[in-house]
Specification:
The chain is an alpha+beta fold and 151 residues long. The chain has a domain of 101 residues. The protein has three helices and ten strands; from the N terminus they run βββββαβββββαα. The strands form four sheets. The protein has a three-stranded antiparallel β-sheet, with no helix packed on it. A three-stranded mixed β-sheet has the order 4-5-8. Strand 1 and strand 2 form a beta hairpin. The termini are far apart.
Length: 151
């Protein structure tokens, strides 16, 4: 198990490897409170998931645990949060708070560790953006590749 700290010595992230090959990863520092507004950064949360997921796929490959792999994300305690798109669209058209306390996007299947994790995550990220009133994640280019602020 690997863990991170939030700077105050509190645990903010961990990865747990189970004997059956399942992996569990958490991160708790991306949810922010600023001037009584609840938000999470659209680019940073996707980037954290993409980077972590790619590392975990590599770990599964090293451990010789073949695919397919099922990826599920859970967003807990997110009622009232809005997505921070960028400085020009923070409170702009389309944004509204998440209406549920917990958000459970549909799972996806990744066939092999060589698959592009960011590209595979698009349906999940789109569901999170949909929960915030946006039609899609802004972090994909026209070919479907994950790129911060692709549009």
């Amino acid at each position: 198990m690997s863990s991170g700290s939030d700077g105050d010595g509190n645990r903010s992230a961990y990865v747990q490897v189970f004997r059956n090959g399942c992996l569990e990863a958490t991160e708790s520092t991306l949810l922010r409170l600023r001037d009584k507004a609840k938000y999470f950064p659209g680019v940073a949360f996707e980037q954290a998931v993409v980077e972590c997921g790619a590392r975990l796929l590599k770990l599964l490959e090293i451990m010789e645990i073949g695919g397919p792999y099922i990826v599920m994300l859970s967003y807990l305690g997110v009622k009232g949060y809005i997505i921070y798109v960028d400085p020009f669209r923070f409170m702009g058209h389309g944004t509204h708070p998440i209406e549920r306390d917990n958000l459970f996007p549909d799972e996806i299947v990744i066939e092999s560790a060589s698959q592009d994790f960011g590209r595979a995550m698009r349906p999940i990220f789109n569901q999170v953006w949909n929960a915030c009133g946006w039609p899609t994640s802004f972090n994909y280019d026209e070919q479907g590749n994950w790129r911060a602020h692709a549009r």
